[in-house]
Automatic annotation (TrEMBL):
<feature type="domain" description="Aminoglycoside phosphotransferase">
    <location>
        <begin position="24"/>
        <end position="235"/>
    </location>
</feature>
<dbReference type="InterPro" id="IPR011009">
    <property type="entry name" value="Kinase-like_dom_sf"/>
</dbReference>
<dbReference type="InterPro" id="IPR051678">
    <property type="entry name" value="AGP_Transferase"/>
</dbReference>
<dbReference type="InterPro" id="IPR002575">
    <property type="entry name" value="Aminoglycoside_PTrfase"/>
</dbReference>
<protein>
    <recommendedName>
        <fullName>Aminoglycoside phosphotransferase domain-containing protein</fullName>
    </recommendedName>
</protein>
<dbReference type="Pfam" id="PF01636">
    <property type="entry name" value="APH"/>
</dbReference>
Length: 255
């Protein structure tokens, strides 16, 4: 790490004793564990224009959420240098739900995890709307616009025909809630067998709760027992097959 960046980090959290890259890295950032005498922090850095802009948003969302009861990491600070953008938050013990699920030995354990995932998402969907996090255009319109941009920039699985279909076949409107916006099993952390914390919150906003549900149960279409366990915890609307297809096999193909 260059000395200038280290200095910036120490301005925020005090003297650093150790920094190490995590074994589990995301796609769009570099994550490190940063140790001081008293605390452990998570440094999330991004280095390309697109991913840096996502990190700016994540910092804003995380800071905005500090005054709510939503379980997210504590925000400590954000800074930029010539090469990248850097967000410092609390290091949360635990492992991603993806990993916890793969380590679970019994069906019962797996169902318990999915039930707990449902409960955590219910908490989020029942929060009062946090207006500073609302986007300037209605959520689905914004997503379709972004899908088009991502399609033209390349690197997505979607195509023109699918995007046209998504425009033509929008699902019936639904009451908006707070949503995570990228609610996959990689983006929540499990501790003591419970899904406790949302991470990777750049897309957390006011939007369509069916998107979170679709991403949460994705890939489980052949395992109804996990979907049932999820809904036992979630306790809110169940999405239809068509809605699931619109969001998971449709919109999500562009992100
Ligand atoms: N606050 C935190 N405390 C502990 N571990 C964390 C924290 N935030 C992230 N991690 C770890 O770092 C990994 C990557 O984090 P994150 O999902 O935020 O990065 P990302 O690059 O945005 O991911 P992607 O683009 O793949 O969705 C997580 O899977 C998790 O293991
Ligand atoms: Mg992630």
């Amino acid at each position: 790490m260059n000395t200038e960046r280290l200095k910036q980090i120490e301005n925020i959290i005090g003297e650093v004793i150790n920094i190490e890259l995590l074994n589990e890295q995301g796609w769009t950032s570099k994550v490190s564990r940063v140790q001081t005498e008293t605390h452990t922090y998570l440094l999330k850095s991004a280095f390309t224009k697109r991913y840096r802009s996502w990190l700016v948003r994540e910092a804003y969302v995380l800071e905005t959420l500090q005054s709510t009861f939503l379980p997210v990491p504590t925000y400590y600070g954000f800074f930029e240098d010539e090469e990248g953008s850097h967000l410092i938050m609390s290091f949360e013990e635990g492992m991603t739900l993806r990993k916890a699920f793969s380590l679970a030995k019994t069906e019962q354990e797996k169902c318990k995890l999915m039930n707990s995932f449902g409960e955590l998402i219910r908490k989020l969907h029942e929060l009062p709307l946090n207006e500073p996090l609302r986007k300037s255009v209605p959520w689905l319109d914004g997503q379709l616009k972004q899908a088009e941009i991502n399609l033209h920039e390349g690197g997505t699985d979607g195509n023109d025909v699918l995007l046209e279909k998504l425009h033509a076949e929008k699902p019936a409107p639904i009451l908006e809630t707070m949503i995570h916006g990228d609610c996959t099993m990689e983006n929540v952390l499990v501790r003591d067998g419970k899904v406790e914390t949302f991470i990777d919150v750049a897309d957390l906003t006011i939007g369509d709760p069916r998107y979170d549900v679709a991403l949460a149960v994705r890939r489980f279409t052949n395992h109804p027992q996990y979907i049932d366990a999820f809904y036992d915890g979630y306790q809110r609307l169940a999405i239809s097959k068509e809605e699931y297809a619109y969001f998971d096999q449709g919109l999500y193909e562009f992100f």
